Each structure stands twice: as C-alpha cells, then as structure tokens.
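During the second half of the funding period, the structural biology subgroup turned its attention to how the target accommodates small molecules. The most pressing case was iron/sulfur cluster, which had performed well in the primary screen but for which no bound structure existed. We therefore specified the complex as follows and requested a full 3D prediction, including the ligand pose.
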Amino acid sequence: MTESRPAGAGLVDERPEPGESVLEVRDLVKHYPVRSGLLRRSAAAVKAVDGVSLTLDRGRTLGLVGESGSGKSTLARVLVGVETPTSGQVLVDGEDVTGRSRAGRKQLRRDVQMVFQDPYTSLNPRMSVNEIVGEPFAIHGIDPAGGRRAAVGELLELVGLDPDHANRYPHQFSGGQRQRVGIARALALRPKILVCDEPVSALDVSVQGQVINLLEDLQEELGLSYLFVAHDLGVVRHIAHDVAVMYLGRIVEQGPEAEVYDAAQHPYTQALLSAVPVPDPSVRLVPAGGAVGASSSDGAVAGAGQPGVGGIVLEGDPPSPVDPPSGCPFHTRCWLAPTLPEARREAASADAVRGLRLIPQVCETDVPALVARGSADAGAAGAAAHVAACHFARELATPGTGA
Amino acid sequence: MSPASRMRTAAEGEGRGTRHSPGAERGEGEQRALLEVTDLAVEFRTPDGVVRAVDGLSYRVEAGRTLAIVGESGSGKSVSSLAVMGLLPDTARVARGSVRLAGTDLLTLSRKEHRARCGEQVAMVFQDALAALNPVHTVGFQLTEALRARRGLSRADARRRAVELLDLVKVPNAKARVKEYPHQFSGGMRQRVMIASALAMDPDVLIADEPTTALDVTVQAQVLRLLAEIQAERNMGLVLITHDLGVVAGVADDVTVMYAGRAVEQAPVVPVYTTPAHPYTRALLRSIPSAAGTGRLPVIPGRPPSPAAMPPGCPFHPRCDAARDICRTEVPPAAHPAEGRMSACHFASDIMAGREPAPEAGVTTSASGTSVPGPKGDPDD
Ligand SMILES: Nc1ncnc2c1ncn2[C@@H]1O[C@H](COP(=O)(O)OP(=O)(O)OP(=O)(O)O)[C@@H](O)[C@H]1O
Ligand SMILES: Nc1ncnc2c1ncn2[C@@H]1O[C@H](COP(=O)(O)OP(=O)(O)OP(=O)(O)O)[C@@H](O)[C@H]1O
Ligand code: SF4
Ligand code: SF4
Ligand SMILES: [Mg+2]
Ligand SMILES: [Mg+2]
C-alpha cells in the first residue's frame, strides 16, 4: 500500500501548515446538566457536543450538516464565545481563546461573527434596522469612514435590502428580509470568520442564491472563512469546500465536498443524501392526495430501511443526547448494520433469535474512530482527508470487492 | 395498514377521483372546498403610507389534498394566512375578498367569532415557531392550553393528551419531555411541538407555514410523511407554505406560486415542473441549489419589489427575462393556458410551450381584446 498522506491529515492529530488554519477546534465538549425533579441533583447531562475536532482554513468554507438536535447550533455558539465549552479547546489564529478574559472575548467577537438560525428572535424588536446593523460599530467604538449611517446603507445594499428602509423595525419585514438584516449586521466589522447558523433557510431559492453568491464574493474579496451550518445539502454543496456531518454531538464523516457528496462512506450521510427532496414531482415523498395510481412509497413508509421513493428511510427516533447509544451512536437507526454478513453470522450463533434487530456486536460495543477508510487516495494538497466513523465504511466504499 | 392505502381508502370514501382546478376562479368545482379564499387583498398602514401586501389572492383547499404555496420572501404567504386565521396585526386590514369556511365568509364575522371558528376548524403552524413558544411555561402546558380553555380538560387528561401529541410528532421520550421548557428543545424539536399543538384540536384544515424549514432532511421526510398520514386519516385539507421546491414536488397536489402579493401561477403539481407557464416559476426552478451540482448558483437578478413601490404593469417585469413593452404598462390578467391552469403573464401560452414571446407580439393582441387569455399562438402543435 502506497501511502501518500497520513490518515486524518489536517483534522485531529496533525498540525496544519502554520498560518493556514484560522480556526481549530480540539476535542470540544459541551454538556448541559439536567437537573432532575426536587432533588436538583445534576445526575445527567445533555451531551450536545461530545468530542468534536475540526480545522477551518483561511478563505475556505466548512459546511456542517446533520440531524436536528445533533449539536450544530451548540457548536456554533461555543465557537463565537456565547457559550463556554465543558472541555476542549478553540484556537483562533493559533491562539487558545477558550479561557480568555472578558476583553479577550470581545476581541474574539470581532474576529468571529455569527449569523443566527432564527431571524425572529435574534433581532431586537425595539431597535430600528439602522440601529441593529450599526450596533457593532457602537459596541466596539468604531467610526467607519463616511459615517455610520452610510456604512449601514452600504451593508443593507450588500445584502439586497433597500437602504431607504433603514428606519423600519424588524416586524415590518418578512422573515427572509429579517435574515438579511442579520447578515448585514454580522458583516459590519469585517470579521475573519463568519459562523452562519442556517443563514439562508428562511429565504426562498432566488434570494438564497443571491446570498450564497454574495457570501462567496465576500470570501474572495476579504479572505473570510465560513463555518456554514445548514440542513439544505444543496446549499451546502454550493458554498462549502469541505463538509462535516454531525450525528448526536459527534462528527461522523468529513471530507472535501465532492467526496462526501459523490462517495459518501457513512450510512448516516448516505441516508441524509438520499432523503434530499428533488424538484421532480415524479419522485414523490408522499402519495398524491386521492389521485389515481398513487405512487408506491408505502414500502418505504413501513420502514423497511430500503432505498426507495424518498430514499433510505431511517427507522426509529433520534436517540436522546442525554443517554446516547453505546458503541456507534448511529447503531439504533443504522440501515446498513442489519444487512451486514457479520450480523447474520452472529445471529446464527446466538441461541435467541426473536425477531430482534440484529446488528454486528462491534457496532454496539466499540465507538468507531473518525479515520480515512477505503482507498485513502488523498486529493490535492491542502484538501482535508475524507474520514468516516463507521466500522464498515470500507465495505461501503467498495461494495462487493472483498479482500 | 399502510398510510398510503389508508389514504386511498379515505379518498375513495369521498367518492373522488378526478383532479381539480387549483384556482378559486373556477369555482364550480365538483369537489366542495373546505376553505375557499377569493380575491383577498390585505393592506398595512406604515410610516411610508398604506401598502398592499396581498393583492387579489384566490385559492381553494379540498379535503385530503395538499396545496403548496411557494414564492419569494415577502410575497405575502404568511400575511395571507394570518388574514385567513383572523390574526392580522392591528396595523393591517383586509381591503377586499372573502374567506369561506364551510359556506360562511369568515371576513363578515366579528374578529372574535372569526377566531373562534378557526380555533375549531382551521389550525396554523406558524413560521416563527421558536418565538411562538413561551419560554416560562413547559412544553406540555403550552401544547394543551387550547384544550384546557376550550374543551375544559382536566390537568391529568391534558398531561396525557400532551404526551400523545408529542408522541404523534415523534418527539422521543415524550413522557419526560412534556415537563421541559422550550429552550431545552432543539430548533427541529420545537418545530414538531408546534405541529403537535396545531393538531391538538383536530382541525379540518391545517395551514403550515414553513413547517419543516428547521429540520434536517431525514426528519423532514418523516414529518412530511407524518403530516400526510394524519391528513389521510382525517381527510384533512393541508396548505403547505414553503420555499423548498423539492418539498413541493414531493408532497403537493396543487401549487400556487406567489409574487408581490399575487398568485402568478396556479396548477396541479406535475405541469408546474414540466411546463411552467410563468417566467417567475421558470426562473425559480432554475435557481434551485441541487445536491448534485456545485459552482455559481443561477439567480433571479434584482430583488422583489417593495409593496410600497410596486412597479407599474407586471410586478415581475424588472426581473423578467421575457419582458416586452406591454409588460411595463399593463398588469397581466389571469390567463388559462390549459385546463386547470392559471398564469398571470401576458405570454402564458408561449412560456408554457417553451417559446420566447415575439418581440412585440403582445402589444396589438392585448390592446384589442382583454378576454384573450394569451397572445396568438396555440400551445399545442
Ligand atoms: N441550553 C440548553 N439546555 C439544555 N439542552 C440544550 C440546550 N441547548 C441545546 N440543548 C440540547 O442540545 C442538543 C443539541 O441542540 P442544538 O440546538 O445544538 O442542535 P442543532 O443541531 O442545532 O439542531 P437543529 O438542526 O434542530 O437546529 C439538543 O438535544 C438540545 O435539546
Ligand atoms: N406588520 C407589518 N407592517 C408592514 N408591512 C408588513 C408587516 N408584516 C408584513 N409586512 C409586509 O408584507 C409583505 C408580505 O410579508 P409576508 O410575511 O407575508 O411574506 P412571506 O411571503 O411570508 O415571506 P417569507 O418567505 O420571507 O416568510 C412583506 O413585504 C412585508 O414587508
Ligand atoms: S459502525 Fe455499525 S452501526 Fe455504526 S454506522 Fe457503521 S455499520 Fe452502522
Ligand atoms: S407579463 Fe411580461 S414581465 Fe410579466 S411575467 Fe409575463 S413576460 Fe414577464
Ligand atoms: Mg440549530
Ligand atoms: Mg412568511
């Protein structure tokens, strides 16, 4: 085996080229204590982020996708300093910012700005758009050339809003318009890193495109780096250079955009990609209402776990992050595990075959490491390696070609 | 029994089988509409004067069917739904139109009666689900507020019902989670809570404003299937407001495309995708970011007009790649380029047939006869 690049290069163990990475996250954990009942003992914790490591290079975009509740927003909030991590490190330009003083945190907030998921609650309803977008100047005592008002006007223009509406209040805008106000505000201080939490999910497609193209232009112009959280895989593919997939507080797959999309290795990523609704009415997610010859997606609805209309259907509910499954966190819903020969071999040897969901034992006992699988044919220099956290990812990459 | 076969049974029980026209302007439909919105116009008082956010919107919602409303941000999707529910803010008023629910025009009722009628029969999942939940009350308390107030449920019964409702929308560990507060739920979970709370009163019509926007695709697929299942079981009419044209293709029966407060295209779902009859619909379909493609996204240039400064003529003309002179001066009337289809474009038939309108084709045609649905040219060969 010829080894062109070490496994997991640029991700966990290896230090990237100095000066290349603008943000580095090392084994980040964020747990929220759960206080139970009258005793108020924090017996358990919501393991919102449970050991995440990643690197964001200057001028690049890392897309973060994953299950609802998988910890994407929590990770984003820790990165911008709104929340303190339970453990782990966040490095901005090589400097550990996790244990910073208040003044240090203020600096961090200049360098790392956030665009929030929810345009409704993130804007102060009593402030005019002019005040909202100009507030970062006030907080940091900055007087932009040409005056604050002109700078705000420029920012509004930049995000496709009418500068004449600067005196309006958030409630006078539609949801999509409000989201653009949030983006304008985040751009005010020309940050190094923009953490965008679902920044375009409230926008319709034509405006989405404008905002994404705009973010790309700004990146090119200013050398910005983006951590881009979104559940729309189409949007992420267009903007991201690299993609990380989260499940239950962990990254289960990461790699260059093209590899993750075209050669996904983790069964969760594969399910995610196959569930993307396609703009083609002959591919129905649900049968047509009362129409003759309703499509036969019922097999899929029944949860056979087979690829079909609407893709691979995941069984069961997302597990609670308070009590995540042992071993592979995806094992309770994995569609691949029950189909593996290992599962059948173990079933045959087991004395009780009671219609249980049989999966390879290793899936239930061992946490799969996030490492390069299959042909680790590393791409161009600077590109992150394609890694996946699945014991059987190799089989997926090359189906049928044993040994 | 699978949801799909249940759905067919429910549909047959209604003795249906034909497709229906989407627009209310073809009112004599064989199927009685549960909810029928006709020529609705909504205005806001703003510091810049009165603006019209919705202008002449019509649609009908039928039992067991899903109407998707898509359109530009700010096109009036939410405002029109709030008007239907009687929940417009005080600065807004309905300038004209009717909202018929089981024969009664809700807009002739007092605000209080209007809301009471809706409370029983029409429910809405609000777009701003995260803001709609009160942070100081438990999720269970909020889920059953209406039930306790209207149906007089006891605390214990309400608690039980809350658990059922959370189970219904597949929130794991429902029994424990009813006691939790909204901030302890992820965005997606909260969205499901909002769906559960809308279903609490067993509505005939559910208006869901971007109900899956906060969800990842695997859960989105679950929630949409769940909605379809519930819809089939209760033969409920569903209005799905979304900007995701993938979702529309996957779940809608009929589609209304809105732009600048108006319906610009209405049709059954299949032809909207195969032969769009309005340039805005066509442009929207082209600008979908696909999971199969990379690179620069095609966009519709410019931005949607502000309701305070609506352009003359066709509201889409400043951004339209097919615009002609007539478009800058004359508001296009509703054309019917084919059975069951409506397009508010001077060149609806051309666009539907995939032809570019002739340079000045529209000028003479439309000036002479307003009843002519489109310019000369037959869509069929
Ligand atoms: N302040 C908090 N206290 C307790 N639990 C929390 C808190 N904030 C988030 N959580 C929990 O942490 C987990 C991760 O939530 P997070 O909002 O980060 O998910 P997400 O990936 O952004 O989901 P979505 O796609 O739905 O926005 C969830 O289970 C959520 O309920
Ligand atoms: N309270 C208000 N005062 C003045 N104008 C308003 C008010 N609420 C909404 N509008 C305006 O009415 C128009 C329609 O808004 P609406 O919220 O219905 O848009 P939408 O189609 O739901 O958009 P989105 O997809 O962004 O949610 C917008 O131009 C908006 O600016
Ligand atoms: S390790 Fe096992 S359970 Fe986990 S994703 Fe791979 S096959 Fe599925
Ligand atoms: S009427 Fe004219 S401007 Fe309007 S959509 Fe049709 S071609 Fe375009
Ligand atoms: Mg989130
Ligand atoms: Mg809206």
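Two results from this model are relevant to the next phase. Residues 316 and 333 of chain A are 6 Å apart (CA to CA). Confidence is low (pLDDT under 50) at residues 1-19, 290-309, 376-382, 397-403 of chain A.
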